[in-house]
Amino acid sequence: MGSEGQVAATEKKRQRTIVILFGLFIGLLVFCTLFSNTLESLTLPKVVTEKALLGSLDYKLEASGILRPVSEVKLTNTVPWRVSKIYVKEGSYVQKGQTLLTYDSSSAEQELQDEIAHLEKQKIELQTYQDQYIQSATSEGDDMKLRAASREIQTRRLDLGIQTRKINELKKKLEQQKEIKAPFDGIVTKINAVTGVVSSGAADIILANSSRGYQLDITSDAELLDLLEISIGEKMPVVIKGDKDKANKVQEFQALIMDIVDNERRSAAADDLVTNAKSTIAQKTVRLQMVNSALKGGEEGRVHITKRSHEEGILISNKAIHREREGLYIYVVEEQLGPLGNVFVARKVPITSSESNDKVTLITSGNVYEQLIIVDSSEPLQDGNRIRLQ
């Protein structure tokens, strides 16, 4: 009886040991499985996602430039005279006929006085020949001498005419060259002249015609200008930064679109290549004109125009869109059920784009509304790849 009890106890102990070992084995198996899945998930590509939105595109034109005079003249002296005095400063507003600077014209004035003295001398010589002619005519003499004296008088009179015209021309040149006057109302944009120094050959003063206004050139993609419906003859708001000493540092002016001209094509950026297969993008330059007495030239002008597209649809970030030979596509996150938990898979979805701007694209096909769309990945993806969400 005692031996049978010991056998039963031993058997029971053995069975308990087997159950414990089996439980430990199953637990270890589950742990290894979970641990291996965890390790595997850490090696999966990590993705950044966003949800598609319903809406319309906003087209924005943001550009800046420096105001330049529409019309300006370079004023200089044709003779190498030293600058005597400068009466204006850069940025000064001047009126037509106002003296801007004067030159040391003493040499020309001395030459003029010498020519005037020579004219007086010629007049005296002419008077002498006239007296001789009268004396010859009143006394009996040789007719040949009388005719010679008459011709000499005519020659002297011609010399007087030549000398008079020469003096008048010298006076005219002296009047023009001794100073520079403003040919029109305008603003002095640059002064190269230096007091006491002979002109170097460059324009001594550059004067902008204030009545013609100022020009601002901005460059943008030709397609964007078409979408914004920008055309010649229309008005465009331009924000100008004022002087630091003014209370209103920023002012808005209405500029007239004078011209739109073709510009050099620019290289396409990565975002451009998503929705545009061309390697270069056509550009145009818009030329704006502003006429306002508050402007002086050299200010910075900024243009900011926003317009909403007429079409509405699903908006997707340009970073999420890929291009292949067959067309455009995106990757969406697909959640799949698994025995050890849900897994996430990248699923390729073809799309058709309608319009785009520099940030998002409006699509007309592809049922991806409210799905998680992959916009970035730590590794290149293929359809069906397992992924992990950031």
If you had to describe this structure to a student in words, what would you say it looks like?
By secondary structure, the protein is α+β, with helices and mostly antiparallel strands. The protein is built from 5 helices and 21 strands. Among the domains are: 43-58 and 313-389, conserved putative lor/sdh protein from methanococcus maripaludis s2 fold, CATH 2.40.420; 60-69 and 211-309, Elongation Factor Tu (Ef-tu), domain 3, CATH 2.40.30. It has helices at 2-43, 106-138, 143-177, 222-227, 270-275, and strands at residues 46-51, 53-66, 68-69, 72-75, 83-86, 93-94, 99-103, 179-181, 186-191, 205-209, 214-221, 235-241, 250-267, 280-290, 300-317, 322-324, 327-336, 343-356, 360-365, 372-377, 386-389. The strands form 3 sheets. Strands 1, 2, 3, 11, 12, 13, 14, 15, 16, 17, 18, 19, 20 and 21 form a 14-stranded mixed β-sheet that branches. Strands 4-10-9-6 form a 4-stranded antiparallel β-sheet, with no helix packed on it. A 3-stranded antiparallel β-sheet has the order 5-7-8. β16 (322-324) and β17 form a beta hairpin. The longest helix is centred in the N-terminal third of the chain and has 42 residues, at 2-43. 16% of the residues are buried.
Q: Concise description?
A:
By secondary structure, this protein is α+β, with helices and mostly antiparallel strands. The protein is built from 5 helices and 21 strands. Among the domains are: 93 residues, conserved putative lor/sdh protein from methanococcus maripaludis s2 fold (Beta Barrel); 109 residues, Elongation Factor Tu (Ef-tu), domain 3 (Beta Barrel), CATH 2.40.30.
